[in-house]
Write a structure and sequence with these properties.
heterodimer; A: 118 residues; alpha/beta; five-stranded parallel β-sheet; 5 helices; 5 strands; globular; B: 198 residues; alpha+beta; seven-stranded antiparallel β-sheet; 7 strands; 24% strand
Chain lengths: 118, 198
C-alpha cells in the first residue's frame, strides 16, 4: 500500500514539484496545505505517513508547526523542505523531531531518497 | 549611525560576493544549467534615488521583494524585465518537467525562485555573522507606483549598504536578472564585530 503524504508549502510551484516527484515514486498525495493553519488541521484530520513541511509560511514558522505536531503526538514522519539553509536552522529542526531536512533547490531523486529513509 | 572602514568594507564585499556565488549555485540547480554573476557592486550610504535608478531603468519591471526577518533588517530585490520573467519561467518549467506545469502561473514560479535565491544569500549572512535571520515570504510587484511607495517608505536616510549583481546564463545573453540588497545599520554593526575578530 502506498504511503500517504501531506505537502505543506505556500508555493504552488513547489507543491507541484514535490507532488510530481513523490507520485512518480509511488506515494499517494492525500492533501496540500499552503499555510500553517491548514497544515495543522489537515495533518490531524488526514493522519499522513509523511509530511513535507516548508519552514517559512505566510502565517507561521515551520518549526512551530513541527513542535505542535510533536506536542500533540502526531505519528507522521516530518521531512522539512525549505530554502532556509543555515546550519543552525537545520540543527534546530532535527532536534525538534524532523526526520530529515532537505534544502531547496533539490533534485527529485534527493526527495525520493529521503522519503524512502523515513 | 555606523560607518565602515576600508578593511570592514573589504570584509563586507567578500561576504556579499560569497553570498552571490552561493545564490548563483542555487539558481543553477533550479534551472539545471550553469549560472554566473557579473558586476558585483557595494556602496555605503545608499540613497533612494540610487535604487530607483537601478530598478526603474525598465519600462515594466517585475520586482520580487524579500524582507529579512530576525536579528537584522534588510531587503532583497530580484528585478527582471517582462521578457526575462517569461524566459525564466520557461526555464524553470522545462528543468523540472512537472506533470501539472500548465497550472503554474508565472508569478508562482518567480516567487519561489526569489524565495530560494534570497534564502541562499541570507544563509550566507547568517552563517558568517552568527545571526538568527531568515527571509519572509516574497512579494511580487509590477505596479511601478506601488514599488516606489514601498521603497520610499523605508529608512533611506540612514547609512544603508547597497549591493548589486546580475546573474548570467550561458547562451542566454539577454537574460540578466538584477539582484540587489539594501542592508541597514544593524547589518553594518555585525560586519564591524565580525571584521574585528579577524
Amino acid at each position: 500500500m502506498s504511503k500517504k503524504v501531506l505537502i505543506v508549502d505556500d508555493s504552488l510551484y513547489m507543491r507541484a514539484l514535490i507532488k510530481s516527484a513523490l507520485e512518480k515514486a509511488g506515494y499517494a498525495i492525500i492533501g496540500e496545505a499552503s499555510n500553517g493553519e491548514e497544515a495543522l488541521d489537515l495533518a490531524f484530520e488526514l493522519q499522513p505517513d509523511i509530511i513535507t513541511l516548508d519552514n517559512v509560511l505566510p502565517d507561521m514558522i515551520g518549526l512551530d508547526i513541527l513542535k505542535a505536531y510533536k506536542e500533540e503526538g502526531l505519528p507522521s514522519k516530518i521531512i522539512m523542505v525549505s530554502a532556509v539553509a543555515q546550519e543552525s536552522a537545520i540543527e534546530e529542526a532535527m532536534n525538534n523531531g524532523a526526520s530529515a531536512y532537505i534544502v531547496k533547490p533539490f533534485t527529485p531523486e534527493k526527495l525520493i531518497e529521503e522519503a524512502a529513509k523515513v | 549611525m555606523e560607518t565602515l572602514t576600508k578593511p570592514e568594507i573589504d570584509f563586507a564585499e567578500k561576504l556579499v560576493r560569497k553570498g552571490y556565488l552561493r545564490t548563483a549555485n542555487s539558481f543553477s540547480s533550479i534551472v539545471m544549467q550553469p549560472v554566473g554573476i557579473t558586476g558585483v557592486t557595494l556602496a555605503q550610504g545608499a540613497r533612494l534615488d540610487d535604487i530607483v535608478q537601478l530598478i526603474f531603468k525598465y519600462d515594466e519591471p517585475i520586482i520580487l521583494i524579500t524582507d529579512i526577518i530576525g536579528d537584522i533588517r534588510g531587503k532583497g530585490y530580484l528585478v527582471l524585465t517582462q521578457e526575462e520573467g517569461r524566459q525564466l519561467y520557461q526555464l524553470c518549467l522545462s528543468a523540472f518537467s512537472t506533470t501539472n506545469s500548465k497550472q503554474l502561473s508565472e508569478e508562482s514560479v518567480l516567487k519561489e525562485v526569489d524565495n530560494i535565491l534570497s534564502a541562499a544569500m541570507i544563509a550566507e549572512f547568517s552563517d558568517a555573522l552568527g545571526l538568527s535571520i531568515f527571509g519572509d515570504v516574497p512579494v511580487l510587484i509590477t505596479d511601478v507606483q506601488l514599488a516606489k511607495f514601498d521603497l520610499g517608505s523605508e529608512g533611506w536616510e540612514s547609512n544603508s549598504l547597497l549591493t548589486t549583481t546580475s546573474f548570467t546564463f550561458k547562451g542566454l545573453e539577454k537574460l540578466k536578472p538584477l539582484f540587489l540588497w539594501k542592508l541597514n545599520d544593524d547589518f553594518l554593526t555585525q560586519v564591524k564585530k565580525s571584521a574585528a575578530l579577524l
